[in-house]
Specification:
By secondary structure, the protein is α+β, with helices and mostly antiparallel strands. The chain has three domains: about 80 residues, Rossmann fold; about 140 residues, ATP-grasp fold, B domain (D-amino Acid Aminotransferase, Chain A, domain 1, 2-Layer Sandwich), CATH 3.30.470; about 70 residues, Dna Ligase, domain 1. The protein is built from eleven helices and 13 strands. The strands form three sheets. Strands 8, 9, 10, 11, 12 and 13 form a six-stranded antiparallel β-sheet that branches. It has a four-stranded antiparallel β-sheet with strand order 4-7-5-6, with helices on one face. The structure holds adenosine-5'-triphosphate and magnesium ion.
Length: about 325
C-alpha cells in the first residue's frame, strides 16, 4: 500500500509528532508498505492536495492543533483520501477538554469538577473567572488551555495569586481555559486499539514532578512506568471499561489513549481522551501494547487497518 505519514505540523507538539511520525514510517516500511514522510507546515493544504492520486492512505501522526483536532481530517475528507484514526467530529470533540468532559459526564464517565471560561474577549472576564473558580473549585486547582497537549501551559495553583498567573499562562495557548480541582492520586492511562476497539493493559505513570509535565514526558529517566499497573483486578477492569466507554462516547476510531487519576478513595476521574497518542516506541500506548504481547509494528498495522473515509460518500462521485 502507498502510505503518506503526516507528521510535524504547526502545534506546540511538533517535535513529538516528528518522532512519532518517523517511528511509524519505519514500522510501515518494515511491514512492506511504500511510505512518504510528509511534514505538514504552513502549506499543509497544498501538501495534502499533492498526495491525491498517490496515497492510498494517510497515516495521521500529528499531535495537537491543526492535526489532532479535525482540521486535517476534514481536508482529507474533502480530498477523498482515507485516513487513520478518528474522524472530524471525534477529533475536534476530544481536542476540547471542556467539551469532551461534558460529553463524558453525560455518558457516565466521571470527570474532575471544574469551570471553563475566557480570560478576556467575548464574555471573558478575569475577575469573574477568579471568583467562579474560588466558589466552585477551590485550591489547589489546575489551570489548562482547553485545546493543548503535552501539559503545555498547564499550571497548579495553591492560592489566588498563583491562579491569576495560571490563567495568564494558560490563555497564551488558548483563549478558552479550563480550571479543575487538583486531584491527588495515582496517574493511570488506558490505550484503546483496533477496528473493534479493545482496552490494553492499564499503565501507571509515576512522574518525578508533582504533575506529569513536559519534562517528565520527554526526558528519559524523569518518569517511571509500570505496566500492567499494580492494581487489584477489579480496579483495572473498571478503568478499562471506563476508557472504552470514553472512546465510544466521543466516537473515536482505531486508537486512543484515555488518561485518569485514581484518588485515595479509589475513585477514578477521566482527565481527557487523546485521539492521536504518542507513537514512538517508548510512548505509552506502544508500551501498554507490548505488555499485551503486541509489538510496535503490530500496533501500527492495526491503526493502519482503521483507515477509511468516515463521512458518508459524496453524491456524484
Ligand atoms: N484535575 C487534575 N488533578 C491532578 N492532576 C492533573 C489534573 N489535570 C491534569 N493533571 C496533571 O496534568 C497532566 C496533563 O493534563 P492532561 O492530561 O489533562 O493534559 P494534556 O496536556 O493534554 O496531556 P497529554 O500530553 O496527555 O495530551 C496530567 O497528566 C496530570 O499529571
Ligand atoms: Mg494527558
Amino acid at each position: 500500500m502507498k502510505v503518506a505519514v503526516l507528521m510535524g505540523g504547526m502545534s506546540s507538539e511538533r517535535e513529538v509528532s516528528l518522532r512519532s511520525g518517523r517511528a511509524v514510517a519505519d514500522a510501515l516500511r518494515k511491514l512492506g508498505h511504500e511510505v512518504r514522510e510528509v511534514d505538514l507546515g504552513e502549506d499543509a493544504v497544498l501538501s495534502l492536495h499533492g498526495l491525491k492520486g498517490w496515497a492510498d492512505v494517510a497515516f495521521v501522526c500529528l499531535h495537537g492543533r491543526w492535526g489532532e483536532d479535525g482540521t486535517v481530517q476534514g481536508t482529507l475528507e474533502l480530498l477523498g483520501i482515507p485516513y487513520t484514526g478518528s474522524g472530524v467530529l471525534a477529533s475536534s470533540l476530544a481536542m476540547s477538554k471542556s467539551t469532551a468532559k461534558e460529553v463524558l459526564a453525560a455518558k457516565g464517565v466521571p470527570v474532575p469538577r471544574g469551570v471553563t471560561g475566557r480570560v478576556e474577549g467575548d464574555g471573558g472576564n478575569r475577575e469573574t473567572l477568579l471568583e467562579e473558580v474560588e466558589r466552585e473549585v477551590g485550591y489547589p486547582c489546575i489551570v489548562k488551555p482547553d485545546r493543548e497537549g503535552s501539559t503545555v501551559g498547564t499550571v497548579v495553583a495553591n492560592d489566588r495569586e498563583e491562579l491569576a498567573r495560571g490563567l495568564e499562562e494558560a490563555s497564551l495557548y488558548d483563549e478558552m481555559v479550563v480550571v479543575e480541582e487538583f486531584i491527588r492520586g495515582r496517574e493511570l492511562t488506558v490505550g484503546i486499539l483496533g477496528l473493534h476497539p479493545r482496552p490494553l493493559p492499564v499503565l501507571e505513570v509515576i512522574p518525578s514532578h508533582r504533575i506529569y509535565d513536559y519534562q517528565c514526558k520527554y526526558t528519559p529517566g524523569r518518569t517511571r512506568y509500570l505496566v500492567p499497573a499494580p492494581l487489584p483486578g477489579e480496579v483495572a477492569a473498571r478503568l478499562q471499561e471506563l476508557a472504552l466507554r470514553a472512546h465510544r462516547a466521543l466516537g473515536c476510531e482505531g486508537i486512543s489513549r484515555v488518561d485518569f487519576i485514581l484518588d485515595g478513595e479509589g475513585r477514578a476521574f477521566c482527565l481527557e481522551v487523546n485521539t492521536i497518542p504518542g507513537m514512538t516506541e517508548l510512548s505509552l500506548v506502544p508500551k501498554a501494547a507490548q505488555a499485551a504481547g503486541l509489538g510496535f509494528e503490530e500496533v501500527v498495522a492495526e491503526v493502519l487497518s482503521s483507515a477509511r473515509l468516515k463521512l458518508p460518500a459524496r453524491r456524484g462521485n
